[in-house]
Specification:
277 residues; alpha+beta; 38% helix
């Protein structure tokens, strides 16, 4: 390792961006990814970060999270294409540090040609705060992608957590194991603003995956693999459901609630009872 790109956290981050691009989830500058770095990550990156004298002014985030003071995040850049992350990471992503008040950031690495963290950084930031608290610090990854099959379902399913959770749980057997708590649903809102940030964070108290109506999916995970796997599983189940509906015969048979309970018992997971009849 002779550059910051050799740091394991950076390698995993870049690989995940590329994996999402390969799935077709990141047209143009669509989607974003943030990672709350560990102390070890920051120490490994320290030789490559800007010296204190070159770090510039603090930039207000617009929201405040006291449990994220002093944290460092890797973030995609606003308006940047995820397809360019593996080609030009220094111009596509950045590392930001958070001030002592938990309400501002400054870039300490990356975006060498200018720019700022993703326009949805306030939503990511608030969600990191919630997930850090409810998971006792284990969740570090927040990922948003434009998953086409799930987006399509937001045009035909009732926009409720139960409708989406049941459709997904019953479309692929592994779904109740991967996300036994179900998924939340945010109605359509303008992206990047305070309103969608607040609505998403409210659901992140309970769910690690939130559907953004007509927009995509927002997930949280302890690791890059867990977050990407959650996104991938949900989108694949949505695709299966779309294909079944498109056959024009209606849903003739499905995984029943008793079947779901049996899956939970067999795999030692507790399913959200709100979604079982």
């Amino acid at each position: 390792m002779n550059t910051i790109l050799g740091v394991p956290a950076m390698e995993e981050y870049i690989r995940m961006c590329n994996d999402g691009v390969r799935q077709g989830w990141h047209e143009r500058n669509g989607g974003n990814l943030t990672y709350r770095m560990t102390k070890e990550d920051v120490e490994e990156c320290a030789p490559y970060l800007k010296p204190e004298s070159e770090r510039g002014d603090w930039v207000p985030i617009g929201v405040k999270a006291e449990n994220l003071t002093g944290e460092h995040f890797i973030s995609t850049g606003s308006g940047k294409f995820l397809s360019n992350v593996s080609l030009e990471p220094q111009n596509s992503i950045c590392i930001v540090e958070i001030n002592a008040e938990g309400d501002a950031y400054r870039i300490v690495w990356g975006l060498e040609k200018g720019g700022r963290p993703t326009s949805e950084f306030p939503t990511h930031f608030m969600s990191h705060s919630v997930r850090k608290r409810v998971t006792e610090g284990s969740n570090r990854v927040i990922y948003h992608a434009h998953t086409p099959s799930l987006i399509a379902l937001t045009f035909v399913l009732p926009l409720t957590a139960k409708a989406f959770t049941k459709a997904l749980w019953t479309s692929a057997t592994e779904c109740p194991v991967v996300f036994p708590g179900g998924v939340g649903v945010v109605p359509w809102m303008v992206p990047g603003g305070t309103e969608i940030a607040v609505a998403t964070c409210k659901l992140m108290e309970k769910y690690d995956a939130v559907v953004w109506t007509h927009h995509g999916l927002f997930v949280s995970g302890a690791t890059f693999d867990n977050a990407f796997g959650l996104m991938h599983t949900i989108e694949k189940a949505a695709d299966i459901h779309i294909r079944a509906l498109s056959c024009g015969q209606g849903i003739r048979q499905t995984i029943t609630d008793d079947d779901l309970r049996a899956i939970g018992k067999a795999f030692g997971v507790t399913l959200n009872k709100e979604f079982l009849d």
